[in-house]
């Protein structure tokens, strides 16, 4: 049995922004506004080549299945591609879509039954980075001032965040994350994401850029 470890201390370092690099910022802005997540991200023009799985996803946690369906439906109506249709699972209810710019988004809830209509509210957005070695990645971020909130051995690590952070950071095995999203794990080129923080600029062992 894998035991979870927790930390009650507040994060000394926080994420201040998440920037997606896209070929057409105006088109991307229209999509993310329709999707309902435009206030959580920034956009930057980039033609950097990128093929296959970029190694990360942004995951929306919401209160009920109707809200999951509402967000995923809005994304598809705005041009997203369905990677995994919304369905019940061991952990709740959720689905996965890919934005026109290539970014993969997941919407999920721990609830399997609706207790009311869609709320349009997001409880939390988690930036899940797919990494080769979760333990090594976790130590890398701890050394840069992030506090671990939850850790499940070498499978998953989640870091503490404060209310000023637009998203929460977590690490997941790359192949496990790809499988969860319904895509092949292979990919090359730019990650097409840049994370802003109070920790200063660096690139982590898996090639994710912070500034």
From TrEMBL:
It comes from the Bacteria. InterPro entries: Glyas_Bleomycin-R_OHBP_Dase (IPR029068). This is Glyoxalase. It comes from Streptomyces cadmiisoli.
């Amino acid at each position: 049995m894998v035991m979870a470890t927790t930390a009650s201390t507040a994060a000394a370092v926080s994420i201040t922004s998440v920037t997606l690099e896209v070929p057409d910022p105006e088109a991307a802005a229209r999509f993310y506004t329709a999707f309902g997540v435009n206030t959580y991200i920034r956009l930057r023009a980039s033609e950097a080549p990128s093929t296959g799985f970029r190694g990360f996803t942004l995951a929306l946690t919401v209160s009920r299945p109707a809200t999951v369906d509402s967000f995923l439906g809005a994304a598809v109506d705005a041009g997203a591609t369905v990677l995994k249709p919304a369905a019940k699972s061991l952990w709740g209810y959720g689905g996965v879509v890919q934005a026109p710019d290539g970014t993969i988004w997941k919407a999920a809830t721990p609830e399997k039954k609706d207790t009311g209509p869609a709320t349009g509210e997001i409880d939390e957005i988690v930036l899940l980075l797919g990494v080769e070695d979760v333990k090594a990645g976790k130590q890398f971020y701890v050394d840069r001032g992030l506090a671990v909130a939850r850790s499940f051995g070498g499978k998953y690590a989640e870091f503490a965040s404060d209310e000023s952070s637009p998203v929460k950071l977590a690490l997941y095995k790359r192949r496990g994350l790809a499988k969860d999203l319904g895509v092949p794990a292979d990919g090359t080129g730019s990650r097409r994401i840049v994370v802003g923080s109070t920790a200063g600029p660096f690139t982590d062992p898996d090639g994710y850029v912070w500034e």
